[in-house]
Amino acid sequence: MPAGQTDSPASLYGGASSGLGILACALSVVAGYIGAGIPVVLGALAVTLAIIGFATGAPRRSCTVGLCTGLFGFLLPVIVMTA
């Protein structure tokens, strides 16, 4: 059994938030009107995980990236659909 540092679930919120936020950004630019709901859901999940990550002490840089990209992925389809 290796004696290294193990990742607790609390430290993984930043990475999950960052990954979902980047995916939401990419899909919000590509999806258009047909799949506008998918980036909105992924962006909302990224923002939620980033907030939980800030509260539990996850790496701040990952949480910040997840928060910013999640907000962009959430708001871009909403703005395009209402305009």
Poorly predicted runs of 5 or more residues: none
Number of DSSP E strands: 0
Give the overall silhouette.
elongated
Structural class: mainly alpha
Structure, briefly:
The protein is built from 3 helices and no strands. The chain is mainly alpha-helical and 83 residues long.
Which key phrases capture this entry?
single chain, 83 residues, mainly alpha, 3 helices, elongated
Question: Please, could you describe this protein's structure?
Answer:
The protein is mainly alpha-helical and 83 residues long. Helices cover 75% and strands 0% of the residues. The protein is built from three helices and no strands. Helix 1 (13-31) runs antiparallel to helix 2 (37-56), helix 1 (13-31) packs parallel to helix 3 (60-82) and helix 2 packs antiparallel against helix 3. The longest helix has 23 residues, at 60-82. The model has no long low-confidence stretch (mean pLDDT 83).
What is the topological layout?
Blueprint: H1 13-31, H2 37-56, H3 60-82
